[in-house]
Design goal:
Length: about 120
């Protein structure tokens, strides 16, 4: 006897509404990740409109061994609040954590007279 192989029935892939949403989300995920990275990290790379401190608006000093921003602030402006002076020095030099090292040249706002 001869057997005839019947072709296997082909089924069409059917996606439910939930399945279509999952596929759409997975397709959009790389774009969302790229936009998030660009928004969070790309903003720091943009140039600012600040032109910086004008020439002559600051003087530079070299940090000596053992000095801190607080001690420098007390030296350059003994009559001013050291917290304000440290804040100005930090802003002018774009110091992130307020730590300086020996030999580093930092700018001091000219409103404070250097008495070193």
């Amino acid at each position: 006897m001869t057997s005839i192989a019947a072709p296997a029935p082909t089924t069409r892939l059917r996606l439910t509404v939930r399945g279509r949403r999952v596929v759409a989300f997975l397709a959009a995920l790389p774009v969302l990740i790229a936009l998030t990275v660009a928004a969070l990290g790309g903003g720091a790379a943009l140039a600012s409109l600040d032109s910086g401190a004008p020439a002559g608006s600051f003087t530079e000093v070299t940090v000596m061994s053992g000095e801190t921003l607080w001690s420098i602030a007390e030296d350059v402006a003994p009559g001013a609040d050291p917290r304000d002076v440290v804040a100005e020095i930090t802003r002018l030099n774009a110091l992130e954590n307020g730590v300086v090292s020996a030999g580093q040249r930092i700018a001091i706002p000219s409103e404070y007279t250097v008495q070193r």
